Each structure stands twice: as structure tokens, then as C-alpha cells.
Amino acid sequence: xxxxxxxxxxxxxxxxxxxxxxxxxxxxxxxxxxxxxxxxxxxxxxxxxxxxxxxxxxxxxxxxxxxxxxxxxxxxxxxxxxxxxxxxxxxxxxxxxxxxxxxxxxxxxxxxxxxxxxxxxxxxxxxxxxxxxxxxxxxxxxxxxxxxxxxxxxxxxxxxxxxxx
Length: 165
Known about the structure:
Elements: H1 2-22, H2 39-55, H3 59-64, E1 66-73, H4 84-94, E2 102-114, E3 117-130, E4 133-148, E5 151-161
Helix pairs in contact: 1-2, 1-4
């Protein structure tokens, strides 16, 4: 049962890797950062930090970007992740396998819903290394970020595999 769970994490990890690439892409967003500019640019900074933490397999840094009430579905998630403990468990497993890896955000959009809510959605491509071979996986990704007090946090994340064809 653990092996299917780990396989289900692979797409999520790929998504996370892709976000690492988005830190250099315009329109990317990162959560957990202090408010310093427009909602769109603040959100992009959070996603950049997320991508960096993913690329470094830094579980503490990536978990710190999520709000306590955050939810997400990773590509291979069997169940909705809804507690800080589940978020940590997910990344403890996911960020410590298939290294080295990377990700890039492909086409995407940043939608400012309000001064304290931003949605970033698009396509991504992640890569990892398994048994000495590099693999790539394209997917769809959505981040919902919310400003609380003076910091942006990820309140929802979803990544799914891009359908074939």
C-alpha cells in the first residue's frame, strides 16, 4: 500500500519541481512572503520560494509556505491533504526521492481575485531521476494564495497529469 502512495506522490513532486522553474518565469507566484508590492507580484514571490524549497528538497521551507488550513491534491494523491501534519508527511516522502529533479512552469496565468487572494494556474513540466534515468512529466497546476496579516500563504494546491493526446 505504501508503494502506490509513493507513486501517487511522483506527479505532485514533478509539479513541485516545475514550480522551481517558474521562479525565473514571469507571472509565477510564491506564498509565505511579506507583502511588498502588488498582489500578483507578491504571490509570484511565494511561488518562487516554493520552487526553490522544492528543488532543494527543503521540507521545512516548503511546509512553512502553507497556511494551517491549506488543502491540496498532488498528482498521485489518494486523498485530500488537509492538515499541517499531512502536508509535512507528503513532502517528507516526496521531496526525498527521485533526486535530482527540476520543474518549469509553462503557459500560465495569474488572476488577482482581490487584494488578498490570487490564483496562479497553468501547465508545468517536471523531471526527476529514477534508477539512474531522467523522466519528464507534464501536468496542470493551480495555486491559490491568500494574504493573512502581512504574509502570503498557499491555501490550496492542485496538480494533475496532463491527459495523453
